[in-house]
Amino acid sequence: MIPSTLAYTKASSIDEAVAAVAAGAVPLSGGQSLMPMMRLRLAAPEAIVDLGGIPELVGICEDENEIAVGAMTIHREVAASELIRAHAGLVADAAAGIGSPQVRNRGTIGGSLGHADPHSDMPATLIAAGASVLVRGPNGERRILVEDLITTYLTTTLEPGEIITQVRIPKGDDHSAYAKFHRRAIDWTIVGVAICIGDDGVRAAATGVADRPVRLSAFEEVLNGGGSLDDAIARIAEGVEPHAGLDGSVEYKKHLLGVLARQAHAEASSR
Amino acid sequence: MTMGQTITVTVNGTVHTAEVEHRTLLVHFLREQLNMTGTHIGCDTSTCGCCTVHLDGDAVLSCSTLAVQCDGREVRTVEGLQAADGSLHPIQQAFHENHGLQCGFCTPGMMMAALGIIEQQPNATDDEIRAALEGNLCRCTGYQNIVASIRAAADQMARS
Ligand SMILES: Cc1cc2nc3c(=O)[nH]c(=O)nc-3n(C[C@H](O)[C@H](O)[C@H](O)COP(=O)(O)OP(=O)(O)OC[C@H]3O[C@@H](n4cnc5c(N)ncnc54)[C@H](O)[C@@H]3O)c2cc1C
Ligand code: FES
Ligand code: FES
Questions:
Q1: Which of A70, A130, B38, B92 is deepest in the core (most CB within 10 A)?
Q2: Are B68 and B96 within one domain?
Q3: Which one-letter DSSP state was computed for residue A185?
Q4: pLDDT of res. B130
């Protein structure tokens, strides 16, 4: 039993979901983060609205410039998508590496972003891929770069009443990779580095080295200015603020950044 | 505001209509309302896999799914593995023959995860079976015989 009482509704359209969220309900997607949080009493929403009954939130399609991934698309589908693999292989790889098959059968791309855990793999890979989200709220629809979505632990720039409806990933040749380090199979990532090498240069982002996913700006600057990978790695930790914790010291995490950047860069270059 | 509702869930082929509180997790619905205690609870963090059941054919954690989310859907639990005549499912038979359990606490989840693995990857190698078992913890066996059991069950199911 979830410790506190709870009112549940299932929305059958985005408008219905937005109305419920605007009235104070918390959106429920795959429940793979929200349910454990409720069981541990870290979250105690009075009302939740299930997004699981809205067909238009599920599925992956494309237009000329972008891939559109519905917010309720599960990690298993993202991992298996040839379309995503063709244009942003690192996003498919990250999805394939999340939790266990059971978690990937329920957990969603929209939930991963809405949850805003600094150790979650999806945000950094989507930042490196230059992705945005479409969000819907009481005042209509707007677009937010994933890079501008997450501000600190479990906190986003979504306004009250807004939900993520779609993730938009730019199309292009895929030279991308995500390298992460964790101790045991389903443990969360300690540090991860996502790299995309595109026509407009290198874009890189990291998981686990701040209170939110971060762009690795100094690293990018060196590479995009024609510098060597060694020089870029020497500056990779500039501007990042890892926290010391049970999963490692600040020095250790900065060290991991360099090791993983080398791995991800080699893999991205070879794709 | 209502805090509960009537749901209709098909569990192992039998249709159940029941009143549930909204906060009732699927695992508690199965164990405490339907008295089907085959599905186990091993953690509070969605990490042990003991509670694995199939929801509309996919292996999921019943501790991270609300009973109301299963309204109108099909659930299969470990009790639903054996045939109507009581004969063991190939997965149960293989765990029996290969000593795939010791205390048995993790076993219902292991077998339901095994079913998902065999359905998704019928030709999985031992390494792929190990990787796909990442969400199921066993404190007794060291996994060796669990992998052997799943291998044997996959081979048997491919033959039949
Ligand atoms: C054992 C285990 C291991 C895991 N390992 C990893 C891992 O290695 N890497 C990783 O990245 N993740 C991991 N996860 C988390 C997993 O990816 C979750 O699926 C994800 O964090 C949340 O997605 P969800 O769909 O389950 O969201 P939910 O749990 O339903 O929701 C999470 C939060 O996001 C909000 N939310 C949900 N949908 C929306 C929306 N559309 N718009 C706005 N807000 C929304 C909810 O209100 C809630 O606050 C793991 C989870 C478990 C249980
Ligand atoms: S009880 Fe541990 S994962 Fe469900
Ligand atoms: S047999 Fe005892 S926990 Fe697996």
A1: A70
A2: no
A3: T
A4: 97
